[in-house]
Amino acid sequence: MTVTHASSPAASTSGESHERLIGVVHVGLGPIGRQVLAFLAGRGSYRSIGAVDIDPQLIGRTLNQVTDGANGDAVVVGSVGELPAAGPGAVAIHCAGSSLEKVAGTFAELMRAGYHVVSTCEELSDPRSTQGELAAQLDRVAAENGVVLLGTGVNPGYSMDYLPVVLAASQRAVHGVAVHRVQDAGLRRLPLQRKVGAGLTVEEFGERVAQGTIRHVGLPESARLVDRALGLGCTEFTETIDPVIAQARVPLGDSAVDTGHVLGIDQLVVARRNGVEVIRLHLQMAVGLPDPRDVITIDGDPGLETVIRGLHGDSATAAVVVNSLGRVRVAPPGLRTADEIPASPLNF
Amino acid sequence: MTVTHASSPAASTSGESHERLIGVVHVGLGPIGRQVLAFLAGRGSYRSIGAVDIDPQLIGRTLNQVTDGANGDAVVVGSVGELPAAGPGAVAIHCAGSSLEKVAGTFAELMRAGYHVVSTCEELSDPRSTQGELAAQLDRVAAENGVVLLGTGVNPGYSMDYLPVVLAASQRAVHGVAVHRVQDAGLRRLPLQRKVGAGLTVEEFGERVAQGTIRHVGLPESARLVDRALGLGCTEFTETIDPVIAQARVPLGDSAVDTGHVLGIDQLVVARRNGVEVIRLHLQMAVGLPDPRDVITIDGDPGLETVIRGLHGDSATAAVVVNSLGRVRVAPPGLRTADEIPASPLNF
């Protein structure tokens, strides 16, 4: 009853060859930048040829000294101008800042030096809709220098924007999109736990939200990317940030968060068309949240629900960045967004 | 405690304009071809300018007469040579046959006439690995004529190959991929129920499998696409086809499938590297299967599991085809595979 076809491997048909390794420079050696380094060390096609950081304790050290010894002897410098010349197809991986306005000059300098730029800058994920003039300038610099500029990461760049767009391709029509992302901040790095306000009082949390220091950057950008890619025509985008409050004492590292204190953020972006809700992006990042997951619901014809378990923030951001490198190098020059570039590794 | 940012819609920043509608011709007006027509009728950017079918009852009729009246007055012709001239960016949607060898001539004729070609031909989904010489010829014809040739659909083309590759982008490393797709053939069109052998005796099923008339075409292609895109280095691909047998009488339309008879197929492709299983694509299409779903498991670092409910075969195939059109028109000319072209609608 069983028919078996066995077959030998196909002859190599890939257009890729390994005549040379692609040079990579690293701008920003914080937690994500170091994860990117670690991930790249396991890939055969790339070689880290330089790095920049502002930390005086890192400048002058080799990447091997900064990491666990698998990234070579390139020396960390203090400015982009000191980086080595970009060889053909060289890429700069930028993990240093969320504000596009603050890092745009660095992007331009890297692109003029001949580097493609892939950045985790959240505001770069859909800059055309939020910072049009700056986006147009960066697009021009990229095109003039024949390189690609891409903002990506797991969120924004993948879980709450790219994946819903990819899943919408199975639909005859899309009426709305909802994404609910739940992350247990207790499993994440300490800076993130601070960023989401873990351990604060509700009053302190409110002050920091008002100051703008507690906020996941990029959620409105994700909503705009989904809106634009799917042609949903939203006319109003609203963002709210509330605390997740401990109902009982919750352990955190060597300490704990007391009852009534803050565990993290509950952030919501709703996009409406003529007053009707069309897109709902709901992000919860808090210590001790059960069942971390991403639920992507497409209200469409026929509609679809996807539940993903395993999209861990820091690790997935570094992975999405590294796995985009192959596609970035073959994309048309210019400012690109995640929906334009398949988040599919080229031979991994 | 709540901070609200409201914002007005961004100025239109899309590079797309609607100065003209894109012409589409339809080759094959079977169940899938007609669904594609129905889906396209709801989209503003395209216009159906011609159609080909071999059915004498269709030839000479207008598309409006063939469908429900929303596809215009183009007349169905009997051969590709009678189609109208392809305007700029025109696309031929081909839904007529699974065997690449049989339809390659039609593809070449369409491309020489200036059409991009998007086809549901299952063997076109990863032809380089299985039919290398023919694939190279078609690639040349596409490149010479400045058009794209793409094989896609929901399976192969999306659920068991493209989506796992997209999901793998979140991983530091991938060790293996498993996809389990469960489809209730009772909800599908009659030709599909026949194709999977619903109602046959186990003996009849075995005969038809041996003859090659019962088989979902494209599963090995999906495995090869995943292997290639993720660089998994598989060296052996094995396909088995078994019946799903009714344990009790199961209703089917006006009739039923008796106990002990066949409800459908259970098809499995396993790809191994040095004898070790790396890829497992398991497809069950049978009448009455409970909980239709796609489960995609990435064995990686850190690993991931995705459960999707709602990827219905016929409808999703037509949707994936229609939603690929925008991307096909901006992709580099040549033979392309689904992993190279984002399955993301361009403004839907």
From TrEMBL, chains A, B:
Annotated coiled-coil segments of the chain: none
Entries under CDD domains matching the protein: nat-AmDH_N_like
Domain 2,4-diaminopentanoate dehydrogenase C-terminal stretches: 159-343
Protein's name in the database: Dihydrodipicolinate reductase
